[in-house]
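Narrative summary of target 7.
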Amino acid sequence: MGIPMNGNIHAPTVPSGPSSGGAFRDYSQISMVALMEEKERIEAELSALSSVLGSHGVNMETPLTTPDGFPRNDIDIAQIRTIRVRIIHLRNDHKEVMKYLEKGLHDHFASLQRAQGATATGTDPNTSTAPAQRPTATGTSTTDAASLGTPFAKVNSVVPRSPADQAGLKAGDAIRKFGNVNWLNHERLSKVAETVQQNEGRTILVKVVRKQDPGSGTTTELDLQLLPRRDWGGRGMLGCHLVPL
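Modeled conformation, tokenized:
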């Protein structure tokens, strides 16, 4: 006997806002270190849950009904719905955590900038006006350089004559920024893959740190222009392999 379907069983609706810990958690009241730990925890759970969906051969958008509107009998619909709802909750939490991380970083670097200005002028950092950004040796302002944060990925290998090779990427380069992706939002490099897919045939700015001499520890910061494309003669659109740090 058929079961009438009164709703879309593969499109769960959940309220927005923090929820991954069960009870509401006020992210504005926890430290930057705790926020970073929460970010990593959420991303690890999202990755694990996505793998579970993949093991069922589905994703967040895969229909759970047959073409005539009945539940599919080849998959565990109840488990998939539960996982999807959990993923939506976690994504909401991730947005909240990122919002407070970015605010904390902004406040921190603004404070550093005031302190630098006070040191240079001999004034009180609590009352002085933030000075203009000063260029560093690499041509990047002090605030911009700091806001890039630590590198989040390393170039493991580069295929000769690939887009990555033509852009100047080399094995061992540490990536600080890939388009709009940085150490705060790369989500275990999934956002890098997203950026590549969305920018085929368009230039992506990649900021890297390169060791000049392994023995000396001297590094150079470089701004590279990377053009993802499929017609270069190899696999993928970049021709390089990145690993998370």
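The chain has two domains: 32-116, 153-244.
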